[in-house]
Amino acid sequence: MSIILLIIVSIILYIAFLYITVRYMIQPEEPPKPVRFAGMLEAAFGTIVLGSGGFVNDPGGRFIRFFLFFLGLFWISVAVSLYKGSKLGRAICLVLSILRIPTVIGAFFSLLSLYKLYFTQESKDFFNKTIQAGGNDFNSNDSGALKRQDKK
Q1: This model's pTM is above 0.70
Q2: Are 123 and 32 in contact (CB under 8 A)?
Q3: How confident is the model at residue 62 (pLDDT cuts 50, 70, 90)?
């Protein structure tokens, strides 16, 4: 019974994270398809990790359950940061994907997300745009207002 409850809670958390991501996240543009696909893969793997704590049958396995729960939440937050266009999220995803390759299920997720994030031109352009957009913008409205005042 507790396994079913844990799986239901993890699915509800996954839906809540996706809703919060889409509804309240401010982003300059929508991520391209490869980045969205990689984000969904990472969120799905985070949900699998989150729900796998219910399958620990060891009576003293509370630490393992808490570890898997927080690891799943962390993985879902990495997926959210990919949607946001965070270069740090992309780097964390790279490290986690390399560490996940030796696992049975993780190899599939790792290879697909690494390909989508690092070997497609759309994702390279998206992450380069978000990096450059964070810098100083000298073409903003404020600098234009200063130039107009100088002319008068």
Answers
A1: no
A2: yes
A3: confident
